[in-house]
């Protein structure tokens, strides 16, 4: 009897939360509909937040997101825009965006699919978020080599392994460093049979999961020691570079590739190769990345963008 009461109670909370947050029915109308006071409606809505009912509904199905998504689809050649509510805390914002991507993958991945995995904090957050899902007989392949920081959770190989573990699939490592000192060394690595075969399989993936970077001296690439703050700033100020896809393929505000001193020093899938993958999901949660996202969208390599509502509104304004 007690369990039945709890179930009915949660059912009421859900029904009221959906009516208010999704159907945009006023609290007074809800009170009349359910025969309770307006004050009680407010208390129930508060309780729904505390118990996570509203959090799930709002996080994955915000009322305004469908309108913003439609505008994004009309403006850019994308199939989806996964738009998270805005949070001031950067870590929480990253979790919210990652939750949308994780939910999308849980619904989309099918047996025998191949997913090419990128690196970085936003991609890593997707693997951290996924809860219990039915086993998917999928293959997760690193779309970029490894970093020099052992045990780094935002290394593509670590992310790929975690995704495979949570989905019940298998993971394939790209046995190469992500970064090398010059183009000649990169070409030598690319001739290795094992590396070539893994990248060939990644190029044929059904889905790719990558991050979008912006150009600042505190970027992930600088922290890894791949590029110097001077190289990043010089590319931004003197060559018009505003961002990168996957951590190294640089573009300007028009989405056009820019050749820099940093080019051809990373072993991984290029923008051109990503264009041939049917579904490329790009993630950027930070509110400093609106311009970089805009440029990334204009490359034509992205099918699904996952970011915050604030970034989407800025992008729509910038692209008018």
Shape: globular
Poorly predicted runs of 5 or more residues: 1-7, 56-61
Hey, roughly how much beta strand do the residues contain? 5-15%
Provide the gyration radius in Å. Answer: 22 Å
Instruction: Give average pLDDT, whole number.
Output: 86
Plain-language structure description:
With 320 residues, the chain is α/β, with parallel strands linked by helices. The chain has 15 helices and nine strands. Strands 1, 2, 3, 4, 5, 6, 7, 8 and 9 form a nine-stranded mixed sheet that branches. Helix 1 packs parallel to helix 4 (53-60) and helix 5 runs parallel beside helix 15. The longest helix is centred in the first third of the chain and has 21 residues, at 2-22. The radius of gyration is 22 Å and the shape is globular. Residues 1-7 and 56-61 have low confidence and may be disordered.
Which features does this protein show?
single chain, 12% strand, alpha/beta, disordered N terminus, 15 helices
Briefly summarize what is shown.
This protein has helices spanning 2-22, 27-34, 38-50, 53-60, 65-75, 90-108, 121-129, 156-167, 183-190, 193-203, 220-224, 229-239, 271-275, 290-298, 309-318; strands spanning 80-84, 114-117, 139-142, 170-172, 207-214, 243-245, 249-251, 279-283, 304-308. It has 320 residues and is an alpha/beta fold.
């Amino acid at each position: 009897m007690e369990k039945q009461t709890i179930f009915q109670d949660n059912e009421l909370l859900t029904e009221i939360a959906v009516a208010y947050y999704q159907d945009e029915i006023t609290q007074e109308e809800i009170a009349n509909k359910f025969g309770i006071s307006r004050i009680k409606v407010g208390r129930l809505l508060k309780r729904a937040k505390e118990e996570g009912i509203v959090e799930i509904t709002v996080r994955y199905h915000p009322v305004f997101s469908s309108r913003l998504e439609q505008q994004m689809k009309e403006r850019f050649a994308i199939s989806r825009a996964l738009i998270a509510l805005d949070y001031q805390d950067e870590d929480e914002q990253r979790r919210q965006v990652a939750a949308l991507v994780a939910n999308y993958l849980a619904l989309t991945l099918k047996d025998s699919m191949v997913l090419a995995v990128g690196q970085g904090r936003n991609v890593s957050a997707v693997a951290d978020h996924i809860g219990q899902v039915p086993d998917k007989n999928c293959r997760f392949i690193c779309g970029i080599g490894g970093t020099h920081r052992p045990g780094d959770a935002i290394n593509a190989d670590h992310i790929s392994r975690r995704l495979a573990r949570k989905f019940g699939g298998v993971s394939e490592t790209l046995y190469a460093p992500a970064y090398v000192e010059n183009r000649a060394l990169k070409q030598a690595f690319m001739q290795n049979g094992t590396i070539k075969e893994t990248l060939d399989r990644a190029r044929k993936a059904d889905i790719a999961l990558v991050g979008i970077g912006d150009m600042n001296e505190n970027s992930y690439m600088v922290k890894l020691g791949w590029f110097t703050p001077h190289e990043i700033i010089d590319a931004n100020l003197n060559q018009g570079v505003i961002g990168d896809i996957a951590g190294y393929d640089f573009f300007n505000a028009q989405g056009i590739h820019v050749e820099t001193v940093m080019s051809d020093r990373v072993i991984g899938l290029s923008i051109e190769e990503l264009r041939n993958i049917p579904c490329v999901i790009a993630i950027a949660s930070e509110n400093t990345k609106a311009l970089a996202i805009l440029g990334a969208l204009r490359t034509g390599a992205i099918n699904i963008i996952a970011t915050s509502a604030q970034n989407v509104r800025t992008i729509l304004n910038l692209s008018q």
